[in-house]
Amino acid sequence: MVYGHSDLGRSEVIDPITLKILVAGGFGAGKTTLVGAVSEIKPLRTEELLTEAGRPVDDVAGVETKTTTTVAMDFGRITLRENLVLYLFGTPGQDRFWFLWDELATGALGAVVLADTRRLEDCFAAVDYFERRGIAFTVAVNCFDGAARFPEEAVRDALDLDPGTPVVLCDARQRESVKSVLISVVEHAMMASAARR
């Protein structure tokens, strides 16, 4: 709860408006990093070590230094105003955890599909998921050090995106960069909602 003060000097309870945004994408795309970069609280993380048992199903090609994986979700919070709070839910990136996505997506305003150009095909499933459910999303290309850079239109064509779907470049480690991505998601979701009315 958020408490405010009225003109009469009495405290009144102000119910905050909460917005929910999902952060999805392939294994190792930087979802946990993105949530942590912008959250005002210590993010909740459900990461576990990669093990030999997971080697047959965890494709680490291109992300060989990755040692952990999200097994349920990441959670972060941003207070935008006294009565407006944004909740971020990072989804697990591997196929075997996709059963959690429906629960996490319930009530979402929109989503970020975080893309890694070294493994662009890993975000096809997230794009498909949000398109099928009519959830507005922005594709955020995480600019990893040493990864090839491609123009927005090349990424759009490779992912076969609808013309109105935003594609932005970002650095998931940088708070200001992540804020720009989230602004894009909210603006796109608002425009999509207005168009449906």
Characterise this structure:
β8, α4 and β9 form a beta-alpha-beta unit. The chain has 197 residues and is α/β, with parallel strands linked by helices. The protein is globular, with a radius of gyration of 18 Å. The protein has helices at residues 31-38, 101-105, 124-133, 152-159, 175-196; strands at 2-5, 11-14, 17-25, 44-49, 68-81, 84-90, 110-115, 137-142, 167-170.
Radius of gyration: 18 Å
- Head-to-tail CA distance between termini: 31 Å
Strands across the major sheet, in which order?
4-5-6-3-7-8-9
Helix-strand category: alpha/beta
List SSEs in N-to-C order: EEEHEEEHEHEHEH
Can you summarize the main beta sheet?
Answer: 7 strands, mixed
Q: Quaternary state, please? A: single chain
Mean pLDDT equals 81
The number of distinct β-strands equals 9
Beta-strand percentage?
25-35%
Helix content: 25-40%
Give unreliable regions as ranges: 1-6
Large-scale geometry: globular
Helix tally equals: 5
Strand and helix map with partners:
Elements: E1 2-5, E2 11-14, E3 17-25, H1 31-38, E4 44-49, E5 68-81, E6 84-90, H2 101-105, E7 110-115, H3 124-133, E8 137-142, H4 152-159, E9 167-170, H5 175-196
Parallel strand pairs: 3-6, 3-7, 7-8, 8-9
Antiparallel strand pairs: 1-2, 4-5, 5-6
Helix pairs in contact: 1-5
